[in-house]
Amino acid sequence: MTQQEAQATSDVVIGMQTIFGREAHILIDSGSTHSFISRIFAVHADRVLKPLDCSLVVATPVGESLLAENVFRGCVIKVGSSEMVADLIPLAIHDFDAILGMDWLANHHATVDCFRKEVIFRRHGEPDIIFCGERRILPSCVISAMTAKRLLRK
User: Fold this and answer.
1) Distance (Å, rounded) from C-alpha 55 to C-alpha 125?
2) Residue 56 main-chain phi, psi, to 5 deg
């Protein structure tokens, strides 16, 4: 869908997100049950860090287990001109400023279109919001963590 087609159906096409009023490099991950923020980006937090109801052990794709015990509740994530709220758990992640998981996607009635690399937010009584992800072509020297792990085992 082109931007003109989206506007004709009163949808809004968005390509940028901010957290704590700062532009953020975000991964939207339907395979993640929770939403996380990098400890480095968390220095910009405008919320007080609160303890989680119980500690959370987070398994990473490379096989590490990280312990999370705190959360920033009610963080505003701006998607274009729309504001959405997320609970963000600080974690030692490096490639992204935040990872938005199923908790956030479900709370905001999101549909993920993997083929188009779009997330569509359908909020009752409001125009749809379409977030278009980056369409980066990775260099051939980049391999997945699972492939690297398998090669290391061999």
Assistant:
1) 37
2) -125, 125
List of domains in the chain: 3-153 (2.40.70.10)
Q: Tokens standing for 97?
A: 């400023």
How far, CA to CA in Å, does 74 sit from each of 8, 77, 87? 33, 9, 5
pTM across the whole model: 0.75
The two structure tokens encoding residue 21: 């009023």
Tell me what pLDDT residue 9 has.
39
**For range 105-111, the mean pLDDT:** 92
Backbone angles phi, psi at 103, to 5 degrees: -60, -45
Q: 5 phi and psi, to 5 degrees?
A: -65, -40
Cα-Cα end-to-end distance for the chain: 44
